[in-house]
Amino acid sequence: MALRRLREEAARYGRLGRDSKLLIAAGGLQSVGWGVWGSFWQLYLKEAGYTATTIGTYSLVAGILSGALMLPLGVLSDRVGRKRLYLLGYSLSTLSGLVLWWRVDLPFLMAAAAMEGMGWALSGPASNALFAEAAGDLVEEAYSLDSTIRSAGFAAGGLAGWIPEIWVAAGGTYLESYRRMVLVAGSLGLAGAIPLLPVRERFRPAPGRGGLRGLRARRVAWKFAVSSALVSFGAGMSIPLLGYYLSVKFGVESGPIGTLFTMAELSVGAAYLLSTPLSRRFGILKAIVLPQAASIPLLAAIPSAPSFAAAAALYLPRQVLMNAVNPLQSALMMRLTPEEERGSVTAVNAVAWALPNSVASQVGGLLMDRIDLDVPIYATSLTYCAYVAAFYLLFRGEVKDGARPGGRRAPSPAAGPGL
């Protein structure tokens, strides 16, 4: 019975089309570069003399610029097409890191943040709408597989955190070692644009359509915006600063931290593949809110951990429970949104995420530096409680347990009806 279920799930993923597979491959390559970057960038700025406040300011600048541009560029993607905006934005955000290889002075740091924010604004709505178009009716499966491949890529990149440790052991400094890693991350990141080139975009904007004023899916957009604003504000107070937090609290550098992030990504990536069958069995809403609610006590316990190993033991299951359902949330939004408005709705959601998250990163940095290192973790946990409750209340009327949004009944699992 279990083997038959496994074969059925594998067959569903195998039905994904050529363009879906190209976009998933691109996402995997891109994530290797971002995984390398994530293993050291906060530590690079720490070695350059910056504190959590400045690191938070970097996120604030990137987030505000992204939020300011996301809506018009999301609407633009529904009017002119998605692929070229995706390519342009991804290239710009990848090149932003290379600015910090050249100079790490504050003006250059802020210039890199601005480039990153513009890149997010260009690529975010366009890439999501392009991906949903390519996935067709297999949108849950496509998002689950894409998330798994991205996690594997990010995990592989995270192992590069040991490279600076090796260079330092050979007589180098952390500052110079991290600076070299900027080139490694940038080169790998740019390779992620290659599989996008042969992707075929079939969407053709209808004349006179597009724009927020006549948005038919504005109720869906509003609901996702409210929930995204809550979770992003909560996350922003501590999650973007977690590498810095662990380094300061436990005295570790890029090797152990990069390894932890790699283990987390591998764990979450495996769990992504379970999200689709889980939603068919229990209903998409329960499959989203129950794991996320269970993750909150684990996060709140991290400040009490006596060692880095103990903190890691809490962090790993927390990451799985909180993030494994992300593909379901993306699929839910795309299924509830008409194809010609997906770029616009994605943009509304992305703005609702970017602005609170960037402001919260600044708040979190200030709290870490001026009050207590642990306070932002507790603040994140409390805000996540409000988010989970809000998400359930907002969407319980949109879908029924066991049903896919849009009125189609999800196939029942082989073992019997869903709960």
Strand content: under 5%
| Shape label | globular
Q: What is the CATH class?
A: Mainly Alpha
What is the CATH fold-level name? Growth Hormone, Chain: A
Q: What is the number of independent domains? A: 1
Count of helical stretches:
17
Cα Rg: 21 Å
Give the overall average pLDDT.
85
Give the name of the CATH superfamily: MFS general substrate transporter like domains
Question: Summed up, what is this model?
Answer:
By secondary structure, this protein is mostly helical.
Give a description of the structure.
The protein has 419 residues and is an all-alpha fold. The protein has one domain (17-196, 237-395): MFS general substrate transporter like domains (Growth Hormone, Chain: A). It is globular, with a radius of gyration of 21 Å. Helices cover 76% and strands 0% of the residues. The protein has helices spanning 2-14, 18-38, 41-47, 52-80, 83-102, 106-135, 139-158, 162-169, 174-191, 218-236, 242-250, 254-282, 284-301, 308-323, 326-335, 342-370, 375-395.
